[in-house]
């Protein structure tokens, strides 16, 4: 996909079309069902358009923070996310950051409170968000323990363990992105692309 195609997607059309283009570009691996969730930073005034773009999909959204005219939105599919949060290793890790309940509503409310506390400059960024975004637990731990330094590689996340597996995942993410963009440019909607993953 050419840079010109990307610029055209983001610069033309209605606000709803611009939001759809951002979702395609930033969340394609999630839309395609490769990832459990994704995150999107959009203009606060575009949340209504985002809801419209996601109508008739199984995708849920949760605003984690809104500040300086921007909204950080967490996108997820309920069943996949609930199953992800059932993993014992993830629960054990998150307990170290004050998570006590692991129901969808409770765990997202706690994440939201931590992201908001960061936005209000009361705490450092809650890097455990990597777990919510389906990054490997070992890499999230490595990032936190190394303060973001000394990684083996940087792609969709910083890699600290199992470099070859991470590179293969990055390749699949890039392929999903290219496929989603190609489909979108051929006239398919976010709904069409997301339905393929169901």
TrEMBL record:
This is DUF3793 family protein. The lineage of its organism: Bacteria, Bacillati, Bacillota, Clostridia, Lachnospirales. It holds the Pfam family DUF3793. It comes from the Bacteria. It comes from Ohessyouella blattaphilus.
